[in-house]
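Students often ask why we bother encoding 3D structure as a string. The short answer is that it lets us treat folding as translation between two languages. Here is a chain of 240 residues written in the first language.
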Amino acid sequence: MAYIGVDPNIGDITFQRFTGNGNDTTFTLTQSVVSGEALIVTIGNVVQEPGANKAYTAQGTTLTFSAAPANGDVITVRFFGRAVDQPLSYAMALFKFVATANQTAFTGADANGAVLSFTDVDVYLNGVHLDTTDFTTSNGDTITLGSGAAVNDELVIRAFRAFTAADTVSKSSGGTFAAEITAPQFQTTNTTVDTAVFRTNGQSVSENTTIASTKNALAIGPLTISSSTTITVNGNLTIL
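And here it is in the second language, the structure alphabet:
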């Protein structure tokens, strides 16, 4: 698979834990994010709302709460967005299961018929966020609770699934572009190149080509122009 950027690095979504002391409102993250919406933050297993004038904001590697978490409060942070050019991304899906009496394992189709699958998860039982010590995961498709749920308990799973961009070209090993490429300092078509310092060219022309009045064109001969091809020179053309 071709791609631009660093090589894909498949792995779990980063998880970080802090403990409040009643004074600190800022905490340092292990990776940079563009905003608080790139995080899921809980305090004492209660999910916090991101945004200005809400529970917290985040930018770069700084997480800032609007009020200091109480002394001893456990703060958990899950990352699902990064402020870097990273081909690995995560798609999110929600699954809802309604438990039977003492049910511990949840897998397969949920209450809406969606089949559970994930790379990483957040799990909520009757609206309460579960700590990772309260359940286990297996095979990317099963959640097992440490204690059985009661009948009609609702288990909601926020599932993250990794994917990589498919239609890209490798930075390190290269590849082939099938169409034209435009960049701030480099413009090319099949028959013209603009702003290149060093250039090479083919020895035959089989496409109609127009040199604009504002352009100078240079080619290295000899050139063979097919009988059905027209070259229109409105500017200047030099063949060496």
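Translate back mentally: Residues 15-79 form one domain. Keep this in mind for the problem set.
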